[in-house]
Automatic annotation (TrEMBL):
Keywords: ANK repeat. GO terms for biological process: cell population proliferation. GO terms for cellular component: centrosome; cleavage furrow; cytosol; midbody. This is Ankyrin repeat domain 45. It comes from Pseudonaja textilis (Eastern brown snake).
């Protein structure tokens, strides 16, 4: 993999520097192709971009599947589910604390609910031992369900009280 050649002789990869190496193949793509699970785990821990795609539009999980590296594909599914939950938490926190986005649309209770929900998910991420892929997906769905009425308020024109349909 040309991404690996790029790093020969360096001590530690610089964050984000593996993007666009050799038609978009990153070290993550190469490790997935070669079935190097421990390398994948290290790269993900070092915050390698799990969403990076090659010139063919393939991410590392796609590469692992193509080369029948099942353990690597499963790990990358797990890492993506975890990252998706983290990204949602960050998005919510950024939105709730942005005065331009909120513009008087949320009351104190909505802001408190949002902050507490995010903190609960962060605590879950920190304290849960050995969560599986489905656990991350379930936690993300729970957070989305809590935030749906709040984001509906944010999406409504100012001064209008949005109608939120409840799931039955």
């Amino acid at each position: 993999c040309s991404a690996a050649r790029k790093y020969r002789g360096t001590r530690e990869p610089q964050r984000g520097s593996d993007s666009n190496a050799g038609k978009g193949y990153t070290l993550l793509h190469c490790a997935a192709a070669w079935g190097q699970l421990n390398t994948l785990k290290t790269l993900v821990e070092l915050e390698a971009d799990i969403y990076a795609t090659t010139f063919r539009g393939e991410n590392a999980r796609d590469i692992a599947n193509r080369y029948k590296q099942t353990e690597c594909a499963e790990f990358l599914d797990w890492a993506e589910a975890k990252q998706n939950l983290r990204n949602l938490i960050s998005q919510i926190q950024a939105t709730i604390t942005d005065p331009e986005k909120v513009q008087g649309k949320l009351n104190k209770e909505d802001k408190t609910t949002s902050i507490k929900a995010c903190q609960a998910k962060l605590d879950w991420l920190e304290n849960t031992k050995e969560p599986n892929t489905q656990d991350f997906i379930d936690q993300k769905q729970q957070l989305e369900d809590i935030m749906l009425p709040i984001f509906t308020k944010l999406a409504a024109p100012r001064g209008q009280d949005p109608v939120v349909s409840k799931k039955t």
